[in-house]
């Protein structure tokens, strides 16, 4: 893949997150380029999800800055925004490791709820909507048609549109969650283990989807994933985190052969670590 | 001894006979001392008489009864299995069917409620009870916004009912406001209290939320009891003016410069006129509430409430301001409760803090939960049941509340999700007039 270098969309500087005595993220710096897929890998408990929580306003970082160079709205400091404004104003949207859909609502409703802010304005904060004014009905119809055309069909969910999301199989729920995040119209999409629990065919479809989103729609993607067939195949750039620190960064090929990464994943005892460090 | 079969499978006829035979045998053994032998007074001495005829009849009844019971159990089990087998294929159809039944039920209920005062135009008790049912229906629909849709467990809903009632009582007795002038203002007052309560509890969920709202309900009641200068304390407020029909009073003699309802229409005065008017008034208020809530549910704000109930974290991640969503649910729920309170004060003509105890909150919450959280028709059913059961229970005197509790337990065992737990989607893809078959996924 020969892609021209692009500008930085998100730059994480000296991010530290402490919970009491525990340092979950320790002085982490990372750049996320615009229009690319950036993978984040690391052993369990390395602080990957904590990074997402800091990024999307669910945690307030102890120190450090998260600068987003928004393509149309200028520079934003994500660490200062509450979580709903991160999604609404900064358009940084995430999914969750343990799927968080609105289970009793239908698939279509899940997607429409994600456009709450747009539709709420169109309904003139319910007043136009209460009287069924044409403006609101038009906006709602457009939203549904847009969802249908863009996401229900692309994610192969159209025949399930009126089913309760919580009753559907796991793999499909993963797709719905990604679809719902896309309905917020993100500039940066943060996916927390989207391939967890998917079978190989579904993983392959996920790869295709991610490449489409990034290549055709220009959405930058930040991807936490353990499934190497996904991360290594789609990522342009990979950051490796262990114990809250970045231990390596680079192309998939580079990261794959980095001794530090191999050590973090496979584990080595002290002695080998010393010799390994000497030879590296 | 495995003769009495606790079979998981359907039994053969031979098995059934043997099973019934064993049960009859047990019945025989138990029956000899209980039925077969009896003591009689024979000239001051105790004698024993046998009643083998009766015993034989009892044993035969046990035998037949056991056969019948087994047969009924097998039938029920077969039906259930059939249903389970059919359920996967036609889940959507059944949901559709259920919705149709509910819709029909709704129209029937509406027709019945319009016809009721005409049929029972001289029965004060029926019209009064029906009015009470409708007050609870309206309260249930109001609380449904907070508990059923937004999923915020509110145990102090009666506070807003009280705010509405006292607002009207004070505005009318102190400042001479009419019912129609005071109605919107009192609703706004209740909504303000809803937001006041909402602010401090934004971060609370579940049990904690329930406890704080419970406390809020009690605070309002205790203030009303103790702030005598404001609310006249436990003595309450009396002679609250009744609502008029476009300026026409329902009294026997017209006030100065006014006219009575009976006089205007040339009818003979009857106290029933006012009761029937009040009944239709609450019916209209309740129907407006229903239209308002059902419409809101299909708007972004309503979907946001439901999304909030389903997953608050996901709401935030989708860019929704959960603070505003919660406050709007509290405010609108409180406003509807306030309207019901205004009507309550106007109907009773007298209110005191006695009417706004925790029991009321509990009953309204029971209506919402029993009806099926979020279900509008369920609220109607549950409100009717919860008002009528204690009324029918009057014959049972002190066992009345026991009966009430038993009915609630039975309903929850029978339908743990509430009477009507089916949720109708707020929007359907195919309802837009597009045939889904014409569009194939790429």
Order of helices and strands of chain A: EEEHEEHEHHHHHEHEHEEHHH
Radius of gyration of chain A: 20 Å
Q: Helical percent range of chain A?
A: 25-40%
CATH architecture of the largest domain in chain A: 3-Layer(aba) Sandwich
Radius of gyration of chain B: 29 Å
State the CATH class of the largest domain in chain A: Alpha Beta
Tally the structural domains of chain A.
Answer: 2
Count of spatially separate domains of chain B: 2
Helix content of chain B: 55-70%
Show unreliable segments of chain B: 433-442
The count of helical stretches of chain A stands at 12
Give an overview of the whole structure.
The complex is a heterodimer of chains A (280) and B (442). In chain A, the strands form two sheets. Chain A has a six-stranded mixed β-sheet, with helices on both faces. A four-stranded antiparallel β-sheet of chain A has the order 2-1-4-5, covered by helices on one side. In chain A, β7 (188-192), α8 and β8 form a beta-alpha-beta unit. Chain A has twelve helices and ten strands. In chain A, α3 packs parallel to α7 (170-183) and α8 runs parallel beside α9 (228-234). Chain A has helices at 48-55, 83-88, 107-113, 116-122, 127-130, 134-152, 170-183, 200-215, 228-234, 252-256, 259-266, 270-279; strands at 8-19, 22-33, 37-41, 63-70, 74-77, 92-94, 188-192, 220-224, 237-242, 245-250. Chain A has two domains: 8-91 and 186-279, P-loop containing nucleotide triphosphate hydrolases (Rossmann fold), CATH 3.40.50.300; 107-180, no CATH class. With 280 residues, chain A is α/β, with parallel strands linked by helices. Chain A starts with 7 loop residues before the first strand and ends with a helix. In chain A, 40% of the residues lie in helices and 24% in strands. With 442 residues, chain B is mainly alpha-helical. Chain B has two domains: 13-78; 97-424, ABC transporter involved in vitamin B12 uptake, BtuC (Orthogonal Bundle). In chain B, 68% of the residues lie in helices and 4% in strands. Chain B is built from 15 helices and four strands. In chain B, strands 1-2 form a two-stranded antiparallel ribbon. In chain B, strands 3-4 form a two-stranded parallel ribbon. In chain B, α4 packs parallel to α6. Chain B is globular and about 85 Å long. Chains A and B meet through α2, α3, α4 and α6 of A and α9, α10 and α11 of B.
């Amino acid at each position: 893949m020969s892609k021209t270098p692009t500008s930085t969309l998100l730059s994480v500087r000296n991010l530290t997150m402490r919970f009491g005595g525990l340092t979950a993220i320790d002085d982490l710096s990372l750049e996320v380029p615009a229009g690319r897929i950036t993978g984040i890998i690391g052993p369990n408990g390395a602080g990957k999800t904590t990074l997402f929580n800091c990024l999307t306003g669910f945690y307030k970082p102890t120190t450090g800055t998260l600068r987003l160079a928004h393509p149309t709205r200028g520079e934003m400091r994500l660490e200062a925004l509450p979580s709903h404004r991160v999604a609404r104003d900064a358009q940084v949207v995430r999914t969750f490791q343990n799927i968080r859909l609105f289970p009793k609502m239908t698939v279509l409703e899940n997607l429409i709820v994600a456009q709450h802010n747009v539709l709420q304005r169109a309904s003139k904060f319910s007043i136009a909507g209460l009287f069924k004014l044409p403006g609101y009905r038009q906006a709602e119809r457009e939203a549904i048609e847009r969802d249908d055309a863009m996401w229900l069909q692309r994610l192969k969910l159209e025949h399930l549109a009126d089913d309760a999301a919580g009753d559907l199989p796991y793999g499909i729920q993963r797709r719905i969650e990604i679809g719902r995040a896309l309905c917020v119209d993100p500039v940066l999409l943060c996916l927390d283990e989207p391939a967890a629990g998917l079978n190989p065919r579904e993983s392959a479809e996920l790869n295709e989807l991610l490449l489409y989103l990034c290549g055709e729609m220009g959405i930058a993607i930040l991807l936490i994933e353990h499934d190497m067939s996904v991360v290594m195949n789609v990522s342009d750039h990979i950051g490796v985190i262990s114990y809250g620190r970045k231990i390596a960064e680079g192309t998939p090929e580079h990261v794959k052969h980095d001794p530090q990464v191999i050590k973090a994943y496979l584990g080595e005892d002290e002695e080998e670590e010393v010799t390994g460090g000497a030879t590296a | 001894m495995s003769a009495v079969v606790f079979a998981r499978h359907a039994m053969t006829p031979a098995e059934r006979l043997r099973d019934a035979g064993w049960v009859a045998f047990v019945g025989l053994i138990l029956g000899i001392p209980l039925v077969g032998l009896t003591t009689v007074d024979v000239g001051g001495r105790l004698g024993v008489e046998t009643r083998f005829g009766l015993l034989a009849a009892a044993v035969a009844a046990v035998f037949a009864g056991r056969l019948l019971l087994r047969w009924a159990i097998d039938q029920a089990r077969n039906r259930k299995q059939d249903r389970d087998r059919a359920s996967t294929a036609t889940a959507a159809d059944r949901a559709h069917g259920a919705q149709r039944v509910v819709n029909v039920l709704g129209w029937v209920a509406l027709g019945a409620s319009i016809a009721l005062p005409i049929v029972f135009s001289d029965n004060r008790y029926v019209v009064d009870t029906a009015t009470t049912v409708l007050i609870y229906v309206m309260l249930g629909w109001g609380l449904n916004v907070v508990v059923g849709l937004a999923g915020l467990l509110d145990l102090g809903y009666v506070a807003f009912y009280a705010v509405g009632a006292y607002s009207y009582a004070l505005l009318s007795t102190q400042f001479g406001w009419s019912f129609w002038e005071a109605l919107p203002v009192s609703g706004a007052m209740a909504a303000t209290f809803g937001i006041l309560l909402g602010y401090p509890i934004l971060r609370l969920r579940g049990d904690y939320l329930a406890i704080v709202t419970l406390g809020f309900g009690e605070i309002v009641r205790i203030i009303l009891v103790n702030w005598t200068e404001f609310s006249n304390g436990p003595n309450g407020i009396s002679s609250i003016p009744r609502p008029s029909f476009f300026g026409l009073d329902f009294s026997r003699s017209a006030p100065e410069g006014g006219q009575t309802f009976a006089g205007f229409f040339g009818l003979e005065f009857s106290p029933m006129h006012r009761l029937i008017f009040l009944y239709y008034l609450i019916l209209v208020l309740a129907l407006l509430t229903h239209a308002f809530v059902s419409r809101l549910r299909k708007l972004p704000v309503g979907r946001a409430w439901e999304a909030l109930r389903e997953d608050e974290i996901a709401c935030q991640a989708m860019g929704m301001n959960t603070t505003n969503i919660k406050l709007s649910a509290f405010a609108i729920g409180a406003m509807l409760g306030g309207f019901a309170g205004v009507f309550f004060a106007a109907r009773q003509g007298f209110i005191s803090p006695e009417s706004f105890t925790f029991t009321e909150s509990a009953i309204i919450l029971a209506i919402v939960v029993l009806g099926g959280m979020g279900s509008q028709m369920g609220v109607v059913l549950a409100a009717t049941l919860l008002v009528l059961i204690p009324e029918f229970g009057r014959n049972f005197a002190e066992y009345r509340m026991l009966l009430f509790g038993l009915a609630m337990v039975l309903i929850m065992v029978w339908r743990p999700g509430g009477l009507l737990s089916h949720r109708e989607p707020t929007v359907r893809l195919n309802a837009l007039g597009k045939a889904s078959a014409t569009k194939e996924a790429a």
